[in-house]
Every structure is written in C-alpha cells, then in structure tokens.
Amino acid sequence: MRPISLSIAAVLLGVSPLLAQNAQCAPYQLNAQSYNVCNAAIDGTVLFHPVVGMLVSGGNPVLGTARTLGGLPHFSVTLRVNGSEVVTPSLSYDGTTTTVPAGQKLFAPLPQVDVALGLFKGLPGGLLSVDGLVSAQLLPTNQFDNVTLDPNATKIGDVGLGLGFGGRVGILHGHAPVPAVSVSAMYRNIPTITFGNVASGDQFQYSVDLHAVNLRAVAGYDLGLLSLAAGLGWDSYTGDATSTFRDPLTNTVQPPIAISLDQDRTMAFGDAALKMGVVKLAAEAGWQFGKTQQLATTFEQNNPADSRFFANFGLIFGF
After folding, report:
1. What is the C-alpha radius of gyration for the chain, rounded to an integer number of angstroms?
2. What is d(CA 15, CA 252) in angstroms, rounded to the nearest whole number?
3. The domain defined by 2-318 carries CATH number 1.10.760
C-alpha cells in the first residue's frame, strides 16, 4: 500500500499547481477535454496580453531621437506603424491535449499618431528640458480575421481609438562626443478587443482591454542629416479580460470567466532617422524580453519566455 499511496500523493502534488493556476476551471476537471479548453481560454488571455501591449507601446515614444525639442515653439508630429510577427492560436482546439495548435502567422501592424511639444528649454546643456507627449493608437480590427472591437469604443469611422499621454525630460542635450540623454513616461489605454467568436462556433474567445505604463531611457546622437538613438524600457500592462469557451463534451457555451491582468516586461530598442528639411524618415527595431509564466497550457510557436522582435516605421514632421 505504501508505494500506491506515494504514487497517488505524487500525482496530486503534480496536479495541484495546475489547479491553483486556474481555479476557475476546477468545475471542469472531471473531464480532461473540458478542463483543457477552459485552461486554454484563460492562459491564452494571459499569454497574449503583453503582445498587445508591445504593439501599442513600441519603443521610443519620440521615434528616431533622444534629444528633447528645446522648448516652445518646437514640436513634432509622427505618423508611425508598430508591428511584430504574431502566431494566433487555433480557434478549433478541442482539448484532446494540453497543447493548442498554431493558427495564423501574420505580421500585425498597429498605426498611431504621436505628437511632441516642447514645453521648457531647460537649463544650460539641456538639463531638465521638458516635452509633452500625446499619442493616438488606431485599431483597424476589420483587417484581421476573428478580431472585433467593442461596439461602444471610441471610433473614427470603422477605426477604434486608443489614447496615450506623458512627458519626456532631458538630461543632456548632446554635443559630440557626449550623447543626448532623455527619460520619459507614458500612459496608454485601448478599448476592449475580442479574438474569436464562440457564438459562431469557435471553441473559445478572448476579450481584453489594455492599460500600459511605459518608462524609457534613451541616448543618442544627432549627426546633421542622420539621427541615431538606443534605449531601454520597462512596461506595466494591466487590464480586465473575459474568456469564454465552448465545452467540447456538451458543445454548449459556458459562462464567461472574468480575469484581472497585471504583468510587466522589459525591452531594448534602436532607432535611426534621416532628416530631409522639416521631414524625417525613421525606423526602429527592438525586442520585448520574455518572461516564464506558469501556464497549464502550451501554445504552439508561442513560448512566453522567448523574446519578441518588433519594428516601427514613421514619417515625422516638425521643427
């Protein structure tokens, strides 16, 4: 009896972390398929929330430079697109295993408009110069399969609107060989986005909003026609989510599961901008560093511990 008792205890100890992981799925644990789909519905929300945060936040809040604007009346307006390759989960996953197959692989672009306004020139050398920052995220969800926007969200035509605001403070204005250095903070939010549709036959769907706090430290050089910058960042992503799934045993849609999300990520990025009069062409490449998550589900081609590459392209007007 002792070996049997030890085996049972080992099984219970092995299962208990998963049960603690998603307590909302405990009512379904007597059926493995139902339990697995429930876990996938919750875990997918947790896994992809930082991906949405990365697309919304990008790297440098003022693309292509680390130097503050130098007070009034200087300003810049940037039309930019943040993007990254995303592998979506298969919405036909039926819970026969704990691995969710990959769905579509696509490059997901998220356009936005950034405005920076010089508020204070600062002390000699650029110390404590201040820029005000405003951002509008454009959410053209009609371009993506299985993605819908909250019907009550603020919109411009068919495009949803997210907003951001913050500020940038200069530490050094930069004169070679000393780089320009600045730090910034932004707060951004977007309305609820839903992936999947259980009413149309999908096995699960995720509905999530996003509130992001972005802290950045950037250093760089303005070399006449060319500007270079590199930086590090820390992001906090919070939000309210609802996961819904179809029980594969009964084929009925189960009650929505409410989830409170709170995660953080670090990142690194590099920028380059080419000046042509009052217009600049700018590009950015960076990585959001992954983080191990204790998920009950494995998502094919989506390891949360892996770093994610992102790229931004922009057209900048200003003086």
Report:
1. 23
2. 26
3. no
The structure tokens 């100890």 sit at 13
DSSP-assigned letter for residue 221: E
**The pair of three-digit structure tokens given for residue 227, joined into one six-digit string:** 């500007």
Residue 286 C-alpha from the chain's centroid: 13
Q: Is 292 exposed, middle or buried (0-12, 13-18, 19+ CB in 10 A)?
A: exposed
Return the pLDDT at 175: 79
281 - beta bridge partners? 274, 315
pTM above 0.85, yes or no: yes
**Do the Cβ atoms of 210 and 237 come closer than 8 Å?**
yes
Name the residue ranges covered by the structural domains of the chain.
Answer: 2-318
Task: Output the furthest CA–CA distance in the chain (Å, rounded).
Answer: 84
| Amino acid letter for position 66 | A
**Secondary structure E strands in 202-256:** 204-223, 226-247, 252-253
Query: What region does 280 belong to: left with phi over 0, alpha with psi -120 to 50, or beta?
Result: beta
- How do residues 111-130 score in pLDDT, each as one tens digit? 999 999 999 999 987 889 99
